[in-house]
Amino acid sequence: MSTSHPTAPAGARETTEGTVYTLSGGDWDATAEAIARSDDERIIVNMGPQHPSTHGVLRLILEIDGETVTEARCGIGYLHTGIEKNLEYRTWTQGTTFVTRMDYLTPFFNETAYCLGVEKLLGITDDIPDRANVIRVLLMELNRISSHLVAIATGGMELGATTVMIYGFRDRELCLDAFELITGLRMNHAYVRPGGLSQDLPPGAVDHLRDFVKKMRKNLVEYDQLCSGNPVFKARLENIGYLDLAGCLALGATGPILRSAGHPHDLRKTDPYCGYETYDFEVPTTDTCDSYGRFLLRVEEMRQSLLIIEQCLDRLEPGPVMVGDKKIAWPAQLALGPDGLGNSLDHIRNIMGTSMEALIHHFKLVTEGFRVPAGQTYTAVESPKGELGVHIVSDGGTRPYRVHFRDPSFTNLQATAAMCEGGMVADVIVAVASIDPVMGGVDR
Amino acid sequence: MSDAKDKGNGSPANSGPDKAASEKAASPAPAGAPEDSQLNDSAGALPASVHAPGEVIAERRGMFGANNGGDTSGYGGVRRTVRMPAATSRPYGGYFDEVADELEGALEEQGVDPAAVIERTVVDRDEVTFHIAREHLLRVARTMRDDPALRFELCTGVSGVHLPTDTGRELHAVYHMRSITHGRLVRLEVTAPDADPHIPSIVSVYPTNDWHEREVYDFFGLVFDGHPALTRIMMPDDWQGFPQRKDYPLGGIPVEYKGAQIPAPDQRRSYS
Amino acid sequence: MGLEEKIPSGFMLTTVEKMAGLARKSSMFPATFGLACCAIEMMTTGAGRYDLARFGMEVFRGSPRQADLMIVAGRVSQKMAPVVRQVYDQMPNPKWVISMGVCASSGGMFNNYAIVQGVDHVIPVDIYLPGCPPRPEMLMDAIIKLHEKIKDEKLGVNREAAAREAEEAAMKALPTIELKGLLR
């Protein structure tokens, strides 16, 4: 361009009255002509953050040449909630209420990872009652199923396969029914607490869950029948979103993405927590490195989760679900009243009427919270999306000094560029859906 | 107590971290220990108090968060020193010794004095932390990834911690490295002062840290030198300040309900 | 079977306003505007068990140009706020907004630097729906309440008069600080 006009585009010269700036642009005709001459069809397409196919408030900035994506970049942060900062202003127990809302499809994983960290800082990891651990595992596996179902359902919807979406949400409702029965809430449970659980399983939960496993096992077959062999489905997913093992490790991708590259890395096996080493289950892998492999993996992982749930149900023994140390155990005894879940009236009557010390203790523990010895810890759990790590720093106070979540969605989403570039625009959707990013987890 | 331990186990190879440890530990130990045990008697059974002379990062006064006005609670005289776990001397236990040996060996092979690179080693709650001098971070990261005996393939990103009272090393960057081959997990900690918030970027070694470093920059203002595009990632591009630093208010608006004002969370009472 | 059999001579008299209201409330097109947890519940509402199709609303429009209802489902961050406004501005009139969940309604538990303390700082809201997240039944209740509101909406000069009235009432309303209630 600069050759087409003789003067420099901008210049300055000194005169007696001060500096005089001259600005001269190129000739628009010349500019338009130059653009017309170039056969460059590159366009920048901005997708999102509000777009039906971007899996939440993800913004994709695509540079496309015809139908081919030459560059793909993600814009995130549209759901940044400042949860990590909020945690620093609440007690350790209240923290679960916040972390459960990070990746809202995997609330139990967030809670458990956080609570395992707090327990490690307190040094009470070995004191957690068995029943609490079994229920944690049970709920995490239930949650794995519900999360994978949403991944498959929304992925299907983004492909235009509405049936898959309806199937997925139908079965997810079954999981949510179980959650609601156990925790009282469909989402955002805050059920797992430092030291154990907020309350025990309600009566009838075990029978309900056995029915659930039976129903779910029947329904899971339908995904195979509907999708796995479906030529249209396969044509959309196969060889799309390719990321091999080297790429996965370099980009830190974990979970189904890493396992679809053939590496059976699963923290439940390599770094067991909550007693996972005592459960009998397989870590499925595929070696296709693509979206289709990830879909198959998710279905298979749900089957394995059902196996674990059955084992949990078999080994549920009556017992406490909260650590015995009364300096840590939340003193509330919850009961279901006409106005919802709350403190048991009998318990309140007891501590108000009979024991001044119990009342003081209750008050102190609820308002002030317990102190956690200074130090830092990193605990990781295998969430449905990959390694969910929690870095907790305590300064010995009643509130966390710093909590950082290494969310698998956040890290895995970085693989978008590697998976999409060189492919077609329509396949970007499939690749992103196979990463299964949940923006609540990405942005926190 | 710690001095004796140091002498007993001290060997030429690890004199560096131990020296740093005894320096840090020496000053607060005599005065701090009895007072601390008295105040923390309820937490006496908990593990951290075993590590007694730790690294002092702050001091707290009083209780119940009553910092303004007179001392009506009677607890105003309570002083509590906040200590992070102290440096550990050999043996670290578990695979930590092996990792430390290999790392030191590999650094020596590269002609670097390990004592100058690894400032301190802390083993706490079955986790090992290597405090790395920031100018050597890139070398350490590369060694951790490439050395066949170490092979930490996976970096789980970086987490920033702001400790305004830790003078001269206010900003901490904490990296967790996972070795899938050997099934190990170690922590690297690097610090930078507020006045010069620069840390070398390790994106060239671990590309996964791209977004993680941008996030820490966004929230803490830590500048990762050598990062390909260090821009804000979570906050809007024109945001002022670094919101997760301790000196940045939590923000929010006071919530009003039927005339009652509930202050924003950061202005409420806190229990010191 | 229904109304038509009770009509004596085969026709009914009504007002244009009522007719338009009936048409409008029976054919609403929500924009897909999922932000956070509530978005999942919003999708659930559209899916099998809760079946928003019963209210003729199962088709969520991808483009705001084709939508007349915006369900702000989830926390609105400072970074998202301009986008929310832009999407709202793109929607053709008449348009309505449901603020789904406490985060969208008031910021909820996230009283901090990152979250807009109520989406009504950015766009006008017709229905506030509490809950974290609200159950699908609650969302449907909000939608039905909105239908009721739309059904009785005025047209033309009446609409202007109604808007003026509402404005005057808002000017006269006591600020929250002067309300007497539970805490005073």
What features would you describe in this structure?
The complex is a heterotrimer of chains A (444), B (272) and C (184). With 444 residues, chain A is an alpha+beta fold. Chain A has helices spanning 28-37, 83-87, 95-99, 107-122, 130-159, 162-183, 205-228, 231-237, 245-251, 256-260, 267-270, 291-315, 345-353, 356-367, 408-413, 416-420, 425-435, 439-443; strands at 10-15, 18-23, 42-47, 59-65, 68-75, 192-193, 196-197, 334-337, 340-343, 375-383, 386-394, 402-406. Helices cover 47% and strands 15% of the residues of chain A. Chain A has a 3-stranded antiparallel beta sheet with strand order 3-4-5. A 3-stranded antiparallel beta sheet of chain A has the order 10-11-12. Chain A is globular. Mean pLDDT of chain A is 86; it is low at 1-7. With 272 residues, chain B is of the alpha+beta class. Chain B is built from 7 helices and 11 strands. Chain B has helices spanning 2-9, 15-26, 29-39, 96-109, 114-117, 137-146, 209-220, and strands at 55-61, 79-84, 118-124, 127-132, 154-162, 171-179, 184-192, 198-200, 223-225, 255-257, 260-262. In chain B, strand 6 and strand 7 (184-192) form a beta hairpin. Chain C is built from 7 helices and 4 strands, in the order ααβαβαβαβαα. The mean pLDDT of chain C is 85. Classes of the chains: A alpha+beta (444), B alpha+beta (272), C alpha/beta (184). Chains in contact: A-B, A-C, B-C. At the A-B interface, helix 2, helix 4, helix 9, strand 10 and strand 11 of A face strand 1, strand 2, strand 5, strand 6 and helix 7 of B.
Task: Write a brief structural summary.
The complex is a heterotrimer of chains A (444), B (272) and C (184). Chain B is an alpha+beta fold.
Distinctive features:
B: 272 residues, alpha+beta, two-stranded antiparallel ribbon, 7 helices, 11 strands, disordered N terminus, C: 184 residues, 8% strand
List the secondary-structure elements of chain C in sequence, H or E: HHEHEHEHEHH
Q: How big a fraction of the residues of chain C is strand? A: 5-15%
Total helical segments of chain B: 7
Counting DSSP E segments of at least 2 residues, the number of strands of chain C comes to 4
Helix-and-strand structural type of chain C: alpha/beta
DSSP, total strands of chain B? 11
Overall form of chain B: globular
SSE-based structural type of chain B: alpha+beta
